[in-house]
Amino acid sequence: MIVAANSEDFAQQLRKYRERGRLTQTELAGLATMSVRAVRNLEQGQVAVPRRDTVRLLADALQLSARERVSFELASGREAGDALFDTLTMSPTEVGQPLRGRERELDAILKRVLGEHGRITAITGFGGVGKTRLAHAVAQELAALHGMPTLWVSLRQGTGDGGPDAEGYFRPDRIQKAWYHSVDELVAFSDDGIDQLVRLIGDRAVLLVLDGNDPGQVQHAAKWKMIRNCRNLRILETARTPEGLPEEHRLALAPLPVAARSAGRDEVTASPAVALLLALITDAQSDFEPDETVLTVCAEVCRRLDGLPGALEAAASWFMIVSAEEIGRMARDEPHLLATHPGDRVDLATTVHEAIAAQPPRYRELLLRLADWSGSWTVAMVVARIGIPWAQVARAVHVFLQCGLIAKVTPGGDNLVKFTVLNVIRAYLTRAPEAVASLRPVP
Fold first, then answer.
1. Do residues 174 and 198 both lie within one domain?
2. What is the pTM of this model?
């Protein structure tokens, strides 16, 4: 509900924040995509109740902190709960990069989230496969088509000192009880934070995204507690390892399809992985014109990096500083270096190691053996060759698929369901013998 606004307070705050930013009314109007007259009228207190969108645009343009935003919202006539909720919700314009090659997955998640029984949904898969980007796209679509706001929680492990970690996320033991700067802090992985979040959401139609919920930092019981008490809430989580949800509520996000070696030029450029890589290179280099040699290298890069969007984004950055021929060599000999942005602190090898180490010892040992095989294989082939019971192999393969450690192979003439270990995993296991030894269970 909107209450009567104190237009003088709002006008004073608007002027104070504009002058603090050393902006003229004309400059602020440009940043907020408003008319100069509208800004002038607001500063003169001539608007009794400013529109919600207007207040948010001004707050964005003025770069207000969370505390300042709530005060700004309250002065505009919003109730305290509404002001705090609006401050914590994600803006649908926060993501600049368009979603490429994931239209089918986006439709599947939207149907699941909007369906009667899809109140909790998880996107699982290997690091860099695009789980977070897909979740952002879902949030944008729900905002654009249904006006549904999103509360976004970025879940990260802390550094152990009780303060913000390396990525700027706060640990639960540093939560300020009287004030929350973000919904990350509000959740705080605790019952008290969950209770407050339940009260904040109430009966609102909201999407709550739990991004990076590994390993189950927000437990299944806490999620269902929110679902039971917030009748219009939908929860979407991303995680590298599936946990706590039945299979019908999970989508295992596979890498983007890659063109076969025998594919022609048109088929290569149309394949989702190559199309993404070319678009990423073009975004960084407006004069980029791929010839046959460069196109061949791009196709090879996509195959060696398994069509993983995060790896392809890193590879695109290398095209700015080395030749296509050198990138082709890197794809063959140093795929993990190519799949790591030159400025990143964490390389792909670390992601691979963590993904394998997270598996139970018996699954880890099976994956190590499968990585030694060339070509594709079926569940029956594994049973016959290794001698493990069929049910055990099937369960392991299912887990590997959910975690994105293996990929399905396009069916051939025999129509058998075949799989292969990701190239980036096989390359790591063959090039890092010491790391592999640490992954093997102790006899």
1. yes
2. 0.78
Answer for the pair 422, 406: CB distance below 8 angstroms, yes or no: yes
Q: What's the burial of 396, exposed, middle or buried (CB within 10 Å: 0-12/13-18/19+)?
A: buried
Residue 370 has a pLDDT of 94
Contact 209, 137 (CB under 8 A): no
Please identify which residue in the block is written with the tokens 């529109």. 51
Q: Please give the structure tokens belonging to residue 264.
A: 């022609």
Mean of per-residue pLDDT scores for the chain:
83
CA atoms within 13 A on the CB side of 14: 31
Domain count, the chain: 4
Q: 327 near 301, Cβ under 8 Å?
A: yes
**Domain enclosing residue 320, as ranges:** 265-345
Burial class (CB within 10 angstroms; exposed 0-12, middle 13-18, buried 19+) of 320: exposed
Extract the runs of DSSP E, i.e. beta strands, from 246-286.
Answer: 250-252
As a whole number of angstroms, the distance between CA 116 and CA 108 comes to 14
pLDDT digits (tens, 9 = 90+) for 145-190: 898 999 888 886 543 333 333 333 323 332 222 233 456 555 554 5
Residue at a domain's end among 229, 252, 275: 252
Last residue within a domain, chosen from 45, 66, 90: 90
Buried b / exposed e over 231-249, threshold 16 CB at 10 Å, is eebbbbbbbbbbbbbeeeb
